[in-house]
Amino acid sequence: MIKNLKNLDKFNDQIGKYRYPVCDKDFDKASYLAHLIEHSRNEERPEPGDVVICRGPKKHYHSGHMERCIEELASVCVLPHTPNVGTGYPGSPEEHKIHFSTSGGYWLSCPDEDMFVKQPAKREKTFWTWGHRGWEAGGGVYFKAEVNVWSLFLESIY
Fold first, then answer.
1. Alpha-helical segments (H) within the chain
2. With contact defined as beta carbons under 8 Å apart, do 42 and 52 qualify?
3. β-sheet bridge partners, residue 141
4. Over the Cα atoms of the chain, what is R_g?
5. Phi-psi label, residue 30: left if phi above 0, alpha if psi -120 to 50, beta otherwise
6. Residue 138 per-residue DSSP state
7. Within a 10 A sphere around the Cβ of 33, how many other Cβ atoms?
8. How crowded is the C-beta side of 46, counted as CA atoms within 13 Å?
9. β-pairing, 60-70 with 73-80?
10. Coil, strand or helix: which one is 6?
11. pTM of the predicted model, to two decimals?
12. CA 121, CA 113: separation in Å to the nearest integer?
């Protein structure tokens, strides 16, 4: 199983070796996060971590990332890098709540969840989290989880 986890680390695979070896603790953390992601999906509305296909009159983006839905405002990164995922601190009320963070561009804010249309298929998506070495260069662990796919059409997508 650890071998499969190592194969997902696209950056370290490019240089031919891991900066830090993946251990069982990394595998357990990635498996736990994948489980939380897959079991928090909602068939009625988009959830953070879902894929959003963003379409406009002249441009399409096929792998947008739903970052968050706060106060009826959804934030979508149209061209995201691999999203980081984590949970709240152990013992806190948010211990099992998933948090996402990504960079990339550009970003859309959509005031109405009804603008998102559910697609019939799910998609496997790559995420990353810090491994057992913590916040160090090369210390990330990549894993996959299945998420819902939504489409969004806006005239203002460029």
1. 2-7, 10-14, 24-38
2. no
3. 129
4. 16
5. alpha
6. T
7. 20
8. 32
9. antiparallel
10. helix
11. 0.82
12. 19
Amino acid identity at 46: P
Q: Residues with Cβ < 8 Å from 47, sequence gap 6 or more? A: 40, 41, 66, 69, 147, 148
Per-residue pLDDT of the chain (158 residues; tens, 9 = 90+): 444 555 554 444 433 345 667 788 888 999 999 999 999 999 988 899 999 999 999 999 999 999 877 767 888 999 999 999 998 877 778 778 898 999 988 898 887 766 888 888 899 999 999 887 777 777 788 899 999 999 999 888 87
For 94-131, the DSSP string reads TTT-EEEE--EEEEEEES-GGGEEEEEEEEEEEEEEE-
State both tokens at 9: 């680390």
The Cβ-side half-sphere exposure at 22, using a 13 Å CA radius, reads 24
Token pair listed for 50: 């879902």
- In which residue are the tokens 């948010």 written? 94
